[in-house]
Specification:
About 45% of the residues lie in helices and about 20% in strands. The chain is of the alpha/beta class. It has one domain: Response regulator (Rossmann fold), CATH 3.40.50. It has a 5-stranded parallel beta sheet, sandwiched between helices. Strand 3, helix 3 and strand 4 form a beta-alpha-beta unit. Helix 2 runs parallel beside helix 3 and helix 3 runs parallel beside helix 4. The radius of gyration is 13 Å and the shape is globular. About 35% of the residues are buried.
């Protein structure tokens, strides 16, 4: 499968740090190619960095996770997006999956991020 280029988008620096730590402590198959602190900079980073996977917070300034995901998928239809949030409701999950988001992960499960990234990247391949 090769190296999985991953972009982390979350407005909380501590969350991005924990995700990066989990990825870097893993087997090396997943690489963090960039980070963004809001939806607008996340969309710009997708255009610039062309990651294969984006781990995306739901609640952020400027653009929420669903609008950010929609813009990213319009730019790069094959991108695998993982929404990461502390809270989900059924309607939001349904909307996310309908637009093409591949997975929803709780922020309480951040150590599982490398496995989820590999799974969605494998589904995209």
């Amino acid at each position: 499968m090769g190296l999985i280029r991953t972009l982390l988008v979350d407005d909380e620096p501590d969350i991005r740090m924990v995700m990066r730590w989990a990825i870097e402590a893993d087997d090396g198959e997943v690489s963090v190619v960039g980070e963004a602190s809001d939806g607008l900079s996340g969309v710009s980073a997708v255009a610039e960095l062309e990651p294969s996977v984006v781990v995306l917070d739901v609640k952020m300034p400027h653009l929420d996770g669903l609008e950010t995901a929609s813009r990213m998928l319009a730019m790069q239809p094959g991108i695998a997006i993982i929404l990461c949030s502390s809270y989900y409701d059924v309607g939001m999950r349904r909307e996310a999956f309908a637009m093409g988001v591949r997975e929803c992960v709780s922020k309480t499960d951040l150590v599982e991020i490398p496995d989820v990234i590999r799974r969605v990247a494998g589904a995209a391949a």
